[in-house]
Amino acid sequence: MRYALLLCCLLRVCFAQTLHGRVTGAHGEPVAGATVRVLNTVVEATTGADGRFTLAVGAAAGGVGRTAKAPPDGAARRDAASTARLTLYVTAPGYASRIVSGDSLDISLAPAIRQLDDIVVSAGKKEENSRDLPLSLTTLNAAAAERLWAMEDLRDEVSNLYAAGPGDGRDVISIRGVTSTSYDPAVTTYVDGVSAMSLKSYIPQLFDVDRIEVLKGPQGTLYGRNALGGVINVITRPPTGERKAFVEADLGNYDQQRYSAGLQLPVVRDRLFLSAAVLYEGRHGFYTNDYTHTDFDRQHRFGGNYALRYLAGNHWSVEGTFKHLENRNNGAFPLMATPGMVLAHPYHVDQNAVTTMVDNTVNASLAARYAGPRFTFSTQTAYASNYRIYQQPIDGDFSPVDAITLINNYGKPWNKVSNVTEELRFGSAAAARGLKAGGWDWTAGLYGFYQDVPTKQGTHYGKDAALVGSPDSNYAIVDNSTQYGAGLAAYGQVTRHLAHGWSMTAGLRYDYEHNHERVYGAYVPDGGSASTIQPDTAANASYGAFSPMGAIAKTLDPHTSAYARYARGYRTGGLTAISGDPTQPPLYPYKPEYSNNWEAGVKGAYGRVTADIALFYCVINDVQVPTLELPAGVTVTKNAGRLESRGLDADVQALLATGLRLTYGFGLTHATYDKLDLSQNGSAEDLKGKTQVFTPDMTSNLGLQYTVKLDSKWSAHIRGEWIYRGRQYFDLANKIEQGAYQVVNAGAGVAYGDVTLEGWARNLSKTRYIAYAYDFGATHLGDPCTYGVTLRWAGRL
């Protein structure tokens, strides 16, 4: 009995240890309400009024425990054996966040106006210091993300990134000259660990965001398909044991309205946590339709982000999320037929076919996570769907004539895209991670998906069809396509920490995909019966892709590190749709395209200054060239060339003085085709030497903000942004060009406690520039000057 009692006591110590600590400010004052979290576990705590907290950890500091509050006795104790190998992340409102490693749990925080944040990212499929990753990475924290309303706003914040769309809410994103105008992107987006799969199933609106990570260069090893040019990770605010909420209202010209609200709270103490946020946006159109003399692109949308997290014991957590966006756009494509027309008549269109676009997206996921003394494990199952139609036919010739309209309102299930994904991942335990010589960090996993894309679209030729070269009028060509795709992947990546500050990382992934597509085309005269012009045809395509990577890094001194990296990425292949081009048969397969990227960089953190610079060289083989064919309105994709891209990224953050913060991103990209052979409508064209589309040759993003504390409650701030974008092209022949231009944004506000009032202006310089253009000439301008006010409350309940 005596030995049994002794064994029970030992087990209790090993598996239910509690560690106590204290968080203080720069002058030793207690910091209440700070969050202390053990990275790569479910352990977290909130400090009490005296700044003290308790963490419940397991054996050898590898286990996890439930959220704990401050100890009632106020004792500040530590167990060096338990904490030396753990990494803590400490955050508190008004203070710079800190990453703490070592055996001390007495933690001091500096005010945010006097110190830069330490940044934790999950870009490597685990939580770690962004400075430790051997790749070029830009991270925006919650405060920076609050300035962004949609994904395309990232172009004002991230070097060598460009994003824009034709006005329908789906953006082409380019990083370092790697891009695509098809629905399979070259830069993939993940939201809370779930792949968006394609432009048809992701939510572009940004709200309730905790941070955004932009990974530059191929990320095929960990992220797989469509991570050819990089990855954008959006992480929303997770449910925690804290009681917090926010309410925000934005009002601006063009009757801009944006209202959002959210809360986080425990449902069952230390066990069940809830977070919820909602968004409403609306505005009058930026454009006037001269044909109807009304606003053209008036739009409104409603979205939500909800999550529930359950801590099931000391090692497991389960989290479910649900996201949705219902978008209505009365004028989804504010385009003029040529660049000359849009610049001569800015923010005007002349379209006779007016409609409302219905665009509904739903994302849901269920994840379980285990963090134990020997390894970590997670599984995440996700579902996404998008239903997008035009309630009435939409203008396809972008003019007042009755020549071409597009029809896709054929009822469900047509034009409802759905995806199911599953990822299983194992990794080294939290206590095993670290930079100690001889240590190993590893991650391995399996990934699978299924995608269903039923598409039906009609191209109607009206009474003026002869003006666009049609031999007939008053008829429609209706294309039907049912596409199914499925894939499996296995991957692994390991890092070995060596002596003298060296580390080596290697990884490999193999993806296999299978696509099946069936097409049918019909000629339908107005008031008549359909006749077949494309017989019912089916085809299959399968392919595999290896995505290796390797990196070596060296810590040069306590503040500086350097790395060299090779990585490969790929963009999925597939089958073409029906094409009106006689040289392009239906369901002709096109291969995946592959990028091979070599990169070298230096990262430095010098107190009040961080600076990162990277040089890159990337080669893309079997480049997929998507071409939107009119008047059919379908995209045809071909493997047509080889692209080389080279340049540099440079990012700097600095506190120039107390409260004076500078952020600067600079990018150079020279991306040209050394082979590009296009064949359209029976003719061939050699475009060797042409510059890649949607790729400014230079980006320069400067932000300067000054914040001053007026007293214990009041503060004021002023912010200015200068954005420069170099010359870029929008068609492969380089005939549609936008020269270099500059945009100025500004804002100023005051805060009292938890309430902030701010005035803002975007494109204060009133710059008119082409933001997007199709290769056939239809052009969309960047947004005009907008301004307004924001009122926000964010605090604890």
UniProtKB/TrEMBL annotation:
InterPro entries, A to Z: Beta-barrel_TonB, Beta-barrel_TonB_sf, CarboxyPept-like_regulatory, Plug_dom, TonB-dep_rcpt-like
Entry annotated with the keyword Glycoprotein: no
Stretches assigned to the TonB-dependent receptor-like beta-barrel domain: 254-764
Coiled coil location: none
Membrane topology, from the record: Multi-pass membrane protein
This protein's UniProt keywords: Cell outer membrane, Ion transport, Iron, Iron transport, Membrane, Receptor, Signal, TonB box, Transmembrane, Transmembrane beta strand, Transport
Cleaved signal peptide residues: 1-16
Pfam families to which the protein is assigned, alphabetical: CarboxypepD_reg (PF13620), Plug (PF07715), TonB_dep_Rec_b-barrel (PF00593)
Location(s) in or outside the cell: Cell outer membrane
Record-level GO cellular component terms: cell outer membrane
Taxonomic source organism: Dinghuibacter silviterrae
Domain TonB-dependent receptor plug: 151-231
Protein name as annotated: Iron complex outermembrane receptor protein
Single Gene Ontology BP annotation: iron ion transport
Family, similarity comment: Belongs to the TonB-dependent receptor family.
Lineage per the UniProt record: Bacteria, Pseudomonadati, Bacteroidota, Chitinophagia, Chitinophagales
